[in-house]
Automatic annotation (TrEMBL):
Keywords: Signal. Residues 238-262 form the Ice-binding protein C-terminal domain. This is Ice-binding protein C-terminal domain-containing protein. It comes from the Bacteria. It comes from Leptolyngbya boryana NIES-2135. The keyword Signal applies. Residues 1-28 form the signal peptide.
């Protein structure tokens, strides 16, 4: 189980309190993460945290389990992950990008003593233009998570009775999260979403279904992932540990130096 560093916990805890009190009067709560000032907050029990462009978290190749793209000039997109075909909404048809996801593959992080399952979102929106400063903005209108008894279920939202909804951003009111494509382009996550792990214990179904809906969606695809594949620059396992290599190099260097000194003295 991974731990989050204390400063992030503090930041999340503070914004959690702010969010709780700030939203208590609203009938439709909005978590505004589009402005640089607020980088994290809670909405209906979920924690949302933007990834700072300088933070190495989220770098590498995202292994998406659902990829969405608004069709044509439409700026609304929705969909969910499954191995089933044909797909119902705006999902990418490739089994590499839209596929089943097992709960055991969703990592658990402990924040402030509470366990959460973590999902990554990569937003892919156009850059701002002088005419339209809002192009990089996008709104997460819906986020629902289900546990299903097979990986190829279809027919959202009932899934023919084979899935149980365990989280709904809108379960109490019509909530929305305002977002910005902070890490421009695709291939780098923009947002971490933490869902309380306790919610996942209501069912023994092992397949996770994540349905999301965005508005203000333009340009490239949005994708959800749980894992980032590191760039393939790590050495193969047969190579000795770096410390061993360094030690050998030092010994060899010292021997060569001693030999040179000896030969220069005898000359
Ligand atoms: Ca991005
Ligand atoms: Ca946009
Ligand atoms: Ca909503
Ligand atoms: Ca987009």
């Amino acid at each position: 189980m991974k731990k989050i560093n204390k400063s992030s916990v503090f930041a999340i805890a503070c914004t959690a309190l702010m969010g709780t009190f700030g939203n208590s009067q609203a009938t439709a709560a909005t978590l505004n993460l589009k402005d640089p000032i607020l980088q994290s907050g809670t909405l209906n029990g979920a924690l949302f945290q933007e990834i700072d462009p300088n933070d190495p978290a989220g770098t590498g190749v995202l292994q998406s389990f659902v990829r969405l793209q608004s069709p044509g000039n439409n700026t609304v997109e929705e969909g969910y992950n499954t191995d089933g075909r044909p797909l119902e909404f705006d999902e990418n048809n490739s089994p590499q990008f839209t596929r089943s996801l097992k709960l055991s593959d969703v990592p658990i992080f402990t924040i402030g003593g509470v366990d959460y399952r973590r999902f990554l979102l990569d937003i892919n929106e156009p850059n701002a233009t002088p005419q339209d400063q809002d192009k990089p903005l996008i709104d997460l209108e819906s986020l629902q998570i289900f546990l299903g008894n097979a990986g190829d279920l279809l027919n959202y939202p009932t899934f023919d009775g084979n899935a149980v909804k365990i989280f709904d951003l809108d379960s109490n009111e019509d909530n929305v999260v305002n977002l910005r494509d902070t890490n421009a382009g695709s291939g780098r996550a923009d947002l971490l979403v933490y869902i309380p792990n306790s919610l996942f214990s209501v069912s023994t179904n092992e397949y996770v279904y994540l349905y999301s809906k965005f508005s203000g969606a333009e340009g490239g695809f949005e994708e959800w992932a749980v894992k980032v594949k590191e760039k393939p620059d790590t050495p193969p396992k047969s190579v000795p540990e770096p410390a061993t290599l360094a030690g050998l190099g030092l010994v060899a260097g010292a021997m060569a130096f001693a030999r040179r000194r000896k030969s220069s003295q005898t000359a």
